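Slack export, channel: ligand-projects

TW: morning all. Re-posting the request from yesterday since it got buried. We need the structure predicted with the small molecule present, not the apo form. The ligand is zinc ion; the SMILES is in the block with the sequence. No rush, but it would help planning for next week.
GE: picking it up
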Amino acid sequence: MAQYEITYRCGHTDMVQIYGTNTHGERERKAASYGYRDCPACQAAKAGQANKDAGLATLEGSDKQIAWAEEIRGKYMPRYAQERQEWADHGATDEQLAKVDKVLAWLKGQTSAAWWIDNRFSSSTALRAATKAVDGQGA
Ligand SMILES: [Zn+2]
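GE: finished. pasting the full token output, ligand included:
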């Protein structure tokens, strides 16, 4: 193992531990591969901006929680929009779609980073939790 100073696509640098054999320069190639992605902080900032652009609520929590939650909802929300479209295409009733819209609106307005982290295991886990919360409101 060895420490490599790597430069991300965004220009930020970091020291990373790269493991494995290096008989054919594998570690240098791995180190160079960091040049094709942004550093974690820039990735989080980008995910945050994309979520903001998508109209999602501003998250509350520690910086670390927020960065993590931005990544989770940045992955799940577009998936839900796509699933909603598929349900609509496959004959979901207006009533069913109204229910889905209510849940999606609840998710969009979710400001707790901790909630996203607690429900990160899969997009269906988060959707189920949101549906339960909406039902609990007597909706
Ligand atoms: Zn960066």
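GE: first-pass observations. Residues 8, 10, 12, 38-39, 41-42 surround zinc ion (CB under 6 Å). Residues 41-136 form one domain.
TW: perfect, thank you
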